[in-house]
């Protein structure tokens, strides 16, 4: 069954983009109007995150979110059959020199990003880095090894070192003397929770992962927010923002600064975050006052 489904996905990947976006429109209609996929969670998250918005405004963001989610699905499938030239034309990478300058200065770079816009296409950035940089792409191991291997196949095209999350600290620390760039999707639910790794975000108290900063501090890395903006369907812009927190005495200042800047991006363009996750299921009772 898995092999047949993978064959089907690879066959769909051969469709032109206009065909895939027609399919995306159908998927969006099914998810939103017929199935109501996680609709209660999406509406709850949006309503609580933006209490100042009217019901009609929330509903408009909600509909755009499901269209975006469906586009994300078909654009990921398209990676099975898309030329390098097509990807280069569809993902504009700005100011990559800020990362290359970090490498030239003998420093490693930690890139923090979220599940925002098309995170699977983000690895297009590797084309713009110095050729001798050790580029790491971290993934969460899946229970189903068949699909884990399929996703590794998708990501291997950029030539980055595909590393499972449990092995990431050892891999990066072992390469401390080499210039490396590692991107972390930082908006995941953390395993460890304490007052030191929680903060206020979009009208919620929340816990955040801090592992990237722990690793980065050990090798004196510099930190950047990787901002991915959507120009239009299938067209994205990537910008790098060096994270420079004003207060470096608070716990995990660079991660907090990432969340601050990431929040501003979401507020400007709300539909393109993964609102279908029950992000604020666990509410901290206490947190560091920052």
Topology:
Blueprint: H1 2-12, H2 17-35, H3 39-49, H4 55-78, H5 84-90, E1 91-93, H6 97-104, E2 109-113, E3 134-139, H7 145-155, E4 161-164, H8 168-174, E5 180-185, E6 198-201, E7 204-207, H9 211-218, E8 222-232, E9 235-242, H10 253-268
Parallel strand pairs: 1-9, 2-5, 2-8, 3-4, 3-5
Antiparallel strand pairs: 6-7, 8-9
Helix pairs in contact: 2-4, 3-4
How do you describe this structure in short?
42% of the residues lie in helices and 18% in strands. The chain contains ten helices and nine strands.
What brief labels describe this structure?
two-stranded antiparallel ribbon; 290 residues
Could you characterize the architecture of this molecule?
This protein has 290 residues and is an alpha/beta fold. The protein has ten helices and nine strands. The strands form two sheets. The chain has a seven-stranded mixed β-sheet with strand order 1-9-8-2-5-3-4. It has a two-stranded antiparallel sheet with strand order 6-7. Strand 3 (134-139), helix 7 and strand 4 form a beta-alpha-beta unit. The longest helix has 24 residues, at 55-78. 30% of the residues are buried.
Order of helices and strands: HHHHHEHEEHEHEEEHEEH
Which residues sit in consecutive blocks of at least 5 with pLDDT less than 50?
none
Output the structural class.
alpha/beta
Distance between the termini: 51 Å
Strand content: 15-25%
Helical content, roughly? 40-55%
Q: Report the average pLDDT across residues.
A: 91
Task: Count the DSSP helices.
Answer: 10
Q: Name the shape in a single word.
A: globular
For the biggest β-sheet, the strand order reads: 1-9-8-2-5-3-4
Secondary structure: number of strands:
9
Q: How can the largest sheet be summarized?
A: 7 strands, mixed
Based on CA atoms alone, the radius of gyration comes out at 19 Å
């Amino acid at each position: 069954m898995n092999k047949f489904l993978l064959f089907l996905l690879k066959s769909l990947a051969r469709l032109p983009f206009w065909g895939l976006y027609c399919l995306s429109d159908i998927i969006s209609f099914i998810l939103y109007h017929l199935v109501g996929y996680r609709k209660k969670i999406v509406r709850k998250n949006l309503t609580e995150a933006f209490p100042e918005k009217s019901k009609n405004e929330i509903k408009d963001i909600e509909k755009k979110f499901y269209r975006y989610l469906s586009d994300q699905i078909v654009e990921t499938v398209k990676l099975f059959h898309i030329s390098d030239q097509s990807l280069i034309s569809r993902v504009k990478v700005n100011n990559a020199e800020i990362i290359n300058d970090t490498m030239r200065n003998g420093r490693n770079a930690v890139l923090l990003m979220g599940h925002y816009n098309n995170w699977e296409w983000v690895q297009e950035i590797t084309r713009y880095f110095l050729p001798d940089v050790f580029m790491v792409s971290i993934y969460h191991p899946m229970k189903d090894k068949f699909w884990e291997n399929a996703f590794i196949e998708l990501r291997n095209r950029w030539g980055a070192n595909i590393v499972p999350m449990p092995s990431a600290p050892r891999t990066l620390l072992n390469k401390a003397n080499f210039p490396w760039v590692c991107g972390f999707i930082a908006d995941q639910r953390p395993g460890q929770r304490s007052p030191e790794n929680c903060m206020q975000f979009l009208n919620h108290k929340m816990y955040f992962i801090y592992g990237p900063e722990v690793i980065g501090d050990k090798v004196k890395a510099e930190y950047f927010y990787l901002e991915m903006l959507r120009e239009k369907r299938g067209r994205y812009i990537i910008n790098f923002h060096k994270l420079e927190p004003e207060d470096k005495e608070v716990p995990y200042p660079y991660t907090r600064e990432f969340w601050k800047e990431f929040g501003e991006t979401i507020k400007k363009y709300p539909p393109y975050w993964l609102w279908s996750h029950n992000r604020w299921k666990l509410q901290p009772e206490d947190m560091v006052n920052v």
